[in-house]
Structure formats: structure tokens, C-alpha cells
Design a protein that fits this description.
Helices cover 36% and strands 19% of the residues. It is an alpha+beta fold. It is flat. The structure holds 2-(butylsulfanyl)adenosine. The site of 2-(butylsulfanyl)adenosine has 15 residues, from β3, β8 and β11.
Length: 678
């Protein structure tokens, strides 16, 4: 097939179909690999023929558009909220209010109430036009670029859809992805999201849609608004929208009376525990549009709908004490020790209190009777205090001022909620935490060591930092042992370093010397440098020495490296102790250079920093980068005063061009560039 326009069209159609099979029907007909190959082929074709890129191209799913400030959009139809209730009695009242106005039979539709972020999406002529958050109900933020990356939201519709309409739904973060995201955040020293709803709203407001594309956001649609809808009832329209490719829940029922509504509520109050995402109640809507119109709205919400909210399971118990835990990054987490209490199938003895602000806000005091809930959150939390039970001599909690482990004065930055222990090189849990991170599977994978063994090495003063691991030998390890007391339903445990154990540990430490550079970089434990960032840095800078030398400007010119990461890297490498550790690790034989560093063909571009922009005739993006490097130059993407020249292809971005001109950076064309290499 030689016609690229036609080929792009066909490939896009094919990919759309596979997307639909995978995300909506859950019945993929090709492997993930084959799918990725198709997408890659389309991306390549689009790059070569930007004039044929379709506005709804499936490549939009991988993101890339950056939004600095979200545009405010006025909703054509305001996005109201629903009145809430926690009791069936109030649903009975609602039904009576409705019947009083309608004076006829009323049919209700019961749906799940998804616990996420509301979104309003406009479609024009079958294409996704705009996606806007609820905001204050009157104006919302235009988050179109981010919403386009959500695979279950169609970019182009099929079937017999109205020419223009709005569809509303809830964007949510499924449990599995949420747990993974939080584990990753903790790995790089970022605070975890408190619940999937926060993770969804945080993700939806990110500036870089390429990051959003990597997160598994999902969306159920539950309301259609517009003038020319095919049916005159909610149930029929929403089911019809399935045919246009929207993800509409099957868990919708028509209920003719209170007892049917009650049954739906009770069934889902039990079954919600098995869902892969959070719901916080049931929404009950009058089905007929004619009746909805008759009922109208109050100032805040429609009279034709109500939300029944599930009660989070809640118990009360005594707050015995507050313990303070110190994490790998030095963050202090207050933890409530509770009188054990039964809650939603488990015995709860502890609850996180997050930080000093939360303690102040709740005004919890030692000896208080506190309410503990397990709602959407996975970890139980204290939601309030029974003030009637408060002891007369109770005092407000004074947050600790010094580290409970090393007694260093704690610090708290104004823009952060957590207190930190700054003694990162000498505070025992921070040292042990860094060692545990270093040996972990995704880092150096020294699997014969573990938490307990690290503690033994630490107690015996054999390790104080990660470089010390490479000084261990048979003599220093053999015979060490420790008995760990019983805790948390676990029995007493004895660990001893016998011959086999010792050999295994030394072998695993030795094998770790082959772990590639990008994983070593992750293992070192620089704040905000997780697995992905470490990979980006390793591939960009190739060697640790290049990375150490890089200044702030150079760091942030790398795609996906922002101010926070750059600052953290500079702070880390500014400390002589860290440089010393790296030198010792180097001497031990760890990998601090990327394998397959491109070979040098010439040094014609030596010392030159070059930006290639726009479409080139002889090179793809990867090829031009490689060519620059093969001739000793450095390829960067952002224009700064450090750039020696810009290699301009067709359609070079106007902002880049302007910036290059204002900095008086020479702009050369491809022919001239090829001449330079001759
Ligand atoms: S219908 C006029 N249906 O709950 C309001 N809302 O408190 C129309 N929600 O802002 C909303 N699941 O974000 C509707 N099945 C569902 C829902 C649902 C979750 C959210 C939505 C809304 C909030 C109302």
C-alpha cells in the first residue's frame, strides 16, 4: 500500500476496533505485542505524514500534549449535584415527594454511585470535542488532552448517535492500579494518595498527558444531555449509548417501587466489596424525561434524583497511644495504637494519623474514644472523637519535636504536610530503609538478604550505607544471629547465618555487580528517582559521571524531568558523602555506565549541543539523536542558551523558532547539517 493517507485511515480503524474489543468487550482478538506493533506503525506513518493525522487518531491515547493552565469552560448545562441520604426512610419520602407532583405511576432507574471525578464530554459529529471537569458546577476545567488518553472513552463514535450531545460520567482509579501507583510513589519517597478518588482527580489534573496515558484511569458514563436524543427515557438512551461505543454499566435496573429499590441497595451494599473499583452508594433517578421535566430542579440538585450513600463501617474504640514511624526518606508518620476492635472482617489495632495537621484537625487525644472507619480507603482511619467520653484531664497531642529514633530536631517545610528527620546518614530506620530499598527485587535484587538480615548486619555495625555491603566477607558474616520477638500474630523468629546462608548472601552480592546501570541508579535511592525516571536518566546521560556533572538547566531539558527531580539530583550529588559512596561502589565493580554506548564515528560535532526540531527527510527522531551522538555531539530537546545550533526540519514549532531567534542561536537546515558530517 503506497497511499499513506489511506494506510493511516485503515490502520486507525483497525486499532480502534481492537481497542473496543479489549477495553469495552474485554475480548481481545490479538496479542498485546501485535497491538503495540500496529500502534507503532501508525505513529511512524503519522510522523512521516503529519498532514494526514486524524483528529481522533488512536495515537492520542499515548498522550504527549502538555497543558500548563487548564482553560476554564462554562458548562452549557450546569452540572448539579445530588441530594444525599443514608436511610431508606428518606427514599420513601423522596418517592412521596415525586408522586405528589407527578400524580401518576413513576418508574425509577437504580445505578451504582461511582466514587471518582465527574466529567462532562461533548461529542460533535461523532468525534470527542471537549472534556470538562465539574468544577463549581457552572465552570469547569478543560481536561480534553488527558481524557483522550483514557482507553474506555471513545474518540470516535459508531452507530446512530445524535449530531451533538454531552455525556456525563465518572472517571475513577481501579483498586489494582491504585495499589500499584501508591507502591511506586512510596518507592521514590512521594506521599501515597489517600484513596482512589484522590488518585483519579490528581491524575486528571496533571499537565503532562503522556503520564496520564500510563495510568489506568477508567470511566463509566451515566447521563446523556442534549436536544435530539433518540429516546424519551434515561434508561433507553443510556443503553442506546452502549451501541455508540460508550462504557455503560450493566448494573442498572428499572425499579417500580420502594421494595425493588431497597433490594437493589441491599444487594449492592454486600456485592460492592467484590467490585474492582469504589462505589459509595446508589443513585435513584426518575426514568421518564417528561416526568423529570415536570419535577425540575432546586437550586442545587434535580428533584428527580437522589443518592443513597452507603454507611462506611464505623466502630468506636480507645486511642491508647501514638507512635511515630520514620520512613526511608525520613518522613515521620504518626500511627494511632488502638484498643483492638473488630471492623469489616478484620481486627484493627492501628490507624494512620497521616501528619500533624490531621491530628490538630481531629483534635484527638490520648485516652479518647475515637471513631474508626473503613470506607473507600484501604487502611482504617480515625474520623472523629466521641467528646462525651473525653476524660477531664486530657491534653491536646503535642507532635514530637525530635526524631524518636536518633533524637535529631525535626524539620517541616511550609509546603509539605510531613515532618522530616534530616539526619539521613545516621538515623537507623533511614539507613535500614535505604539498604532494604537497595537490595529489593526491582533494584539490585540481592534476594538472600531481607529486612531481618539487614537488621542483624546493622546491629553488628557491619553496614552503615549501601557501599558497606560490598565489604562484607565470609568471616564477618558467619555465625551472626538474632531472635526476633513475636509480633502481630507472627511467632518468634530466629535468623542465623549458617554456612549456606552466608554463601548465598555473598553470591547474591557478587551477582549484583552485573545489574545494569539504570537499576543501580534506581537502587541508590535518590528522592523522586523511581524506576522509570532512573531509566530516562541512564539512557540520556549514559554514565553516572555525566549525570553528576549535569546542571539544573541540563537536567530539566530532559523529557519528563521536572524541577523537583532536578533539584533532588543536584542536592544528592552535592553531598561529598554520596560521591564517596558512588566511588566505593564503582571500585567494587558495579555498573555505572550504560551498556551499548553508541560508538563514535567522528568528533565533528564534539562539544556541540544541538536541538533537532520539525520533520527531517533523512532521519527519524531516534536516528537524528543517534547520529548527533555518533559524531560526538549532544542532542537535547529544549532550546536554551547552551544550544549551539538548531537543526530545523519542516514544520518546526513556532515557539521553538521564536525562542531560538530571540537567543540568536543559528538555525541550520538538513543539507547544511549533512555537509558538516562529510
Ligand atoms: S447522575 C444531576 N449517576 O455523584 C446530577 N451521578 O453527588 C446527575 N455520581 O456529581 C448525576 N455515580 O459525580 C449520577 N450513576 C451516577 C453517578 C453519579 C456517581 C456522582 C457524580 C455527581 C455526584 C452527585
Amino acid at each position: 500500500m503506497n497511499n499513506p493517507k489511506q494506510k493511516i485511515k485503515e490502520l486507525s480503524e483497525k486499532i480502534r476496533k481492537h481497542n473496543y474489543n479489549y477495553y469495552i468487550l474485554s475480548q481481545p482478538t490479538i496479542s498485546d505485542y501485535d497491538f503495540d506493533m500496529l500502534l507503532e506503525e501508525l505513529q511512524k506513518l503519522e510522523k512521516q505524514n503529519p498532514e494526514y493525522v486524524e483528529p481522533d487518531s488512536p495515537t492520542k491515547r499515548v498522550g504527549g500534549d502538555i497543558t500548563k493552565d487548564f482553560k476554564q469552560v462554562v458548562h452549557k448545562y450546569p452540572m448539579l449535584s445530588l441530594s444525599n441520604t443514608y436511610s431508606i426512610g428518606e427514599i420513601v419520602d423522596f418517592d412521596e415527594r415525586v408522586k405528589k407532583i407527578i400524580n401518576d405511576e413513576v418508574e425509577y432507574v437504580c445505578e451504582l454511585k461511582y466514587d471518582g471525578v465527574a466529567i462532562n464530554i461533548t461529542y460533535k459529529n461523532g468525534l470527542l470535542f471537549q472534556a470538562v471537569t465539574r468544577g463549581d458546577g457552572i465552570h469547569g476545567d478543560d481536561v480534553t488532552a488527558n481524557v483522550k488518553t483514557i482507553r474506555t472513552i471513545p474518540l470516535r463514535l459508531h452507530g446512530n448517535y445524535p449530531v451533538e450531545f454531552e455525556i456525563r460520567g465518572e472517571i475513577f482509579y481501579p483498586h489494582k492500579g491504585f495499589e500499584k501507583l501508591n507502591a511506586e510513589r512510596q518507592e521514590i519517597g512521594e506521599l501515597p494518595f489517600a484513596n482512589p478518588r484522590n488518585a483519579a482527580s490528581g491524575t486528571l489534573k496533571m499537565q503532562d498527558s503522556a503520564i496520564v496515558a500510563k495510568r489506568p484511569l477508567d470511566c463509566f458514563l451515566y447521563n446523556i444531555v442534549g436536544e435530539n436524543l433518540p429516546f424519551n427515557s434515561h434508561y433507553d438512551n443510556i443503553n442506546e449509548a452502549k451501541k455508540w461505543d460508550f462504557k455503560i454499566s450493566n448494573n442498572i435496573a428499572i425499579c417500580k417501587n420502594i421494595s425493588e429499590i431497597n433490594e437493589f441497595i441491599n444487594d449492592w451494599d454486600k456485592a460492592r466489596k467484590n467490585l474492582a473499583f469504589d462505589i459509595d452508594g446508589i443513585v435513584i433517578k426518575v426514568n421518564s424525561y417528561r416526568q423529570q421535566e415536570q419535577l425540575g430542579f432546586t437550586a442545587k440538585s434535580p428533584r428527580w434524583a437522589i443518592a443513597y450513600k452507603f454507611k462506611a463501617e464505623r466502630v468506636s474504640t480507645e486511642l491508647l497511644s501514638i507512635a511515630y514511624q520514620v520512613g526511608r526518606t525520613g518522613a515521620i508518620t504518626p500511627v494511632a495504637n488502638l484498643k483492638p476492635v473488630h471492623l469489616a472482617g478484620t481486627t484493627v489495632k492501628r490507624a494512620s494519623l497521616h501528619n500533624s495537621d490531621i491530628i490538630k484537625e481531629l483534635d484527638v487525644r490520648i485516652g479518647d474514644t475515637v471513631y474508626v472507619e473503613k470506607g473507600g480507603e484501604i487502611i482504617p482511619k480515625i474520623v472523629g472523637v466521641d467528646l462525651l467520653e473525653r476524660k477531664t484531664d486530657s491534653k491536646a497531642v503535642e507532635f514530637i519535636s525530635h526524631c524518636p529514633e536518633c533524637n535529631t530536631l525535626l524539620i517541616k517545610k511550609e509546603d509539605e504536610a510531613n515532618h522530616y528527620c534530616p539526619n539521613e546518614d545516621n538515623c537507623p530506620p533511614q539507613i535500614k530503609g535505604k539498604l532494604e530499598h537497595f537490595i529489593s527485587r526491582k533494584a539490585m535484587n540481592i534476594d538472600s538478604l531481607g529486612e531481618g538480615k539487614i537488621e542483624i548486619l546493622f546491629d553488628n555495625k557491619l553496614v552503615r550505607n549501601i557501599a558497606d555491603l560490598y565489604d562484607l566477607n565470609y568471616k564477618s558474616l558467619f555465625g551472626l544471629e538474632k531472635i526476633f520477638p513475636a509480633e502481630n500474630e507472627k511467632n518468634e523468629k530466629k535468623i542465623s547465618f549458617q554456612k549456606k546462608t552466608t554463601e548465598n548472601i555473598l553470591n547474591a552480592i557478587d551477582a549484583s555487580k552485573q545489574v545494569p546501570f539504570e537499576r543501580v541508579l534506581f537502587a541508590i535511592g535518590i528522592r523522586f528517582v523511581g524506576g522509570t525516571v532512573a531509566k530516562i536518566l541512564a539512557f540520556h546521560f549514559k554514565t553516572i559521571d555525566n549525570l553528576i556533572k549535569a546542571d539544573f538547566e541540563e537536567l530539566i531539558s530532559v523529557d519528563e524531568i521536572g524541577d523537583k527531580i532536578a533539584e533532588s539530583l543536584i542536592n544528592f550529588f552535592n553531598k561529598p558523602e554520596n560521591i564517596l559512596i558512588i566511588e566505593r561502589l564503582k571500585a567494587a565493580g558495579l555498573q555505572f555506565e550504560l551498556e551499548n554506548i553508541p560508538k563514535l564515528i567522528s568528533s565533528k560535532l564534539e562539544g556541540k549541543t544541538i536541538v533537532a526540531s520539525g520533520r527531517l527527510t533523512n532521519f527519524t527522531r531516534d536516528e537524528i539523536k543517534q547520529t548527533i551522538e555518533e559524531h560526538g555531539g549532544k542532542a537535547v530537546s529544549a532550546i536554551s542558551s547552551k544550544v549551539n545550533f538548531v537543526l530545523a526540519g519542516e514544520n518546526m514549532g513556532p515557539t521553538k523558532l521564536k525562542k531560538a531567534q530571540s537567543l540568536k542561536i543559528p538555525i541550520i537546515e538538513e543539507d547544511e547539517f549533512l555537509e558538516m558530517l562529510k
